[in-house]
Amino acid sequence: MTTTITPNVTNPSAVRVELDSPAWDELLSQITRQLAQTAAQHDRDGSFPHANFDYLQQHGLLALTVPKALGGYEASLSQTAAVIHAVARGEPSTALVLVMQYLFQLSIARNENWPAHLRERVAAEAVKDGALINALRVEPELGTPARGGLPGTIARRTPEGWRISGTKIYSTGIPRLTWLAVWARSDDADPLVGAWLVHRDTPGITVVEDWDHLGMRASGSHRVVFDDVLVPLEHAVEVAPASQPSKPDGAFYSWISVLLSTLYDGVAHAARDWFVQWAHGRVPANLGAPLSSLPRFQEGLGEVEALLFANRAVLDAAALGRTRPADQGLIKYTVTGNAIAAVQKIAELTGNPGLSRHNPLERHLRDVLCSRIHTPQNDAILTTAGKAAFAAAAAQPRSH
């Protein structure tokens, strides 16, 4: 099937730089510094960082994974992970919304089930206006769909289009989203299950601002209620009969594991950077020298460096396709576990100052702990890995 590609859509106000150039490296450092300036305030009051997305749009970065033919950067996984790392070191809630934007834009570009004009529209709006998209999947009664079950959100087929009703929670980025990929099921005997594309301004959508969590407080992950929301029939963009579910894209899951893991590795690096400065500047009167001169602190930082080195090795290999598709869960388990251990070690070394809200470390600790809640969770990762190892062993001929 051939698809007509529209001409490049440009954002005339964007200041774009060449990927992997010295200017690109400087931009990433600048992003971290810029976003870090307001991170504490957004965490404290739970406000959504709209200005961060305005800033990223100035450099065309909200269209990083949009194809070049549609005006985007069409960045590789390594290049995309570098942006996520830089953003997460500054303000991780922004990075979480950005991960979802990048994953969706990548998925849309590869998915021919979408009508071509919808693919091109969502991409073009990301380039020109910085329009964001994310999936709304989790529900109050069902919880995460990764554990199985059908959504309670119903899409009713009517002559004028689909009528969608239901409630979603943990709707990350909803204060800024333009497009919502709503996980629902149709009212057919063998229901269609999957994503319906809904524009944020469609009548019948209510956002209940109830997000008040321990970490990632600026992600705007509020409850969203859909009351008979009307969308065109062609907006059932990624659905399949419940009796014949679609198969997951293994290559796409490598992007998910790398980008989410990179995000929380970035949080750990932010904690490490703060600790180094703090230990250099902290000179107790009874010591007469910085804490950084003490073997205990040097050894402790060495432990942190070892954890982050392991993360870098794993993430670099995964981004270059040097890990097995079956190991995507283990990548997340290893990297996020190391990130948590690194920040916890720093908190142990710093004592009370590290847990004071006057310092950013306690925020980094709260944020990095949120890595455990993303799908797949640790129990599912380890059970899958264990089953695979037993199965592989059973398939080998026994030696006598």
TrEMBL record:
Start and end residues of each Acyl-CoA oxidase/dehydrogenase middle domain: 139-229
Name recorded for this polypeptide: Putative acyl-CoA dehydrogenase YdbM
Domain Acyl-CoA dehydrogenase/oxidase N-terminal, residue spans: 32-101
Protein's organism: Amantichitinum ursilacus
Gene name linked to the record: ydbM
EC number of this enzyme: 1.3.99.-
Molecular functions (GO terms): flavin adenine dinucleotide binding; oxidoreductase activity, acting on the CH-CH group of donors
Entry keyword annotation includes Oxidoreductase: yes
Record-linked Gene3D superfamilies: Acyl-CoA dehydrogenase/oxidase, N-terminal domain (1.10.540.10), Butyryl-CoA Dehydrogenase, subunit A, domain 2 (2.40.110.10), Butyryl-CoA Dehydrogenase, subunit A, domain 3 (1.20.140.10)
Ranges of residues in domain Acyl-CoA dehydrogenase C-terminal: 266-375
Enzyme superclass (EC): oxidoreductase
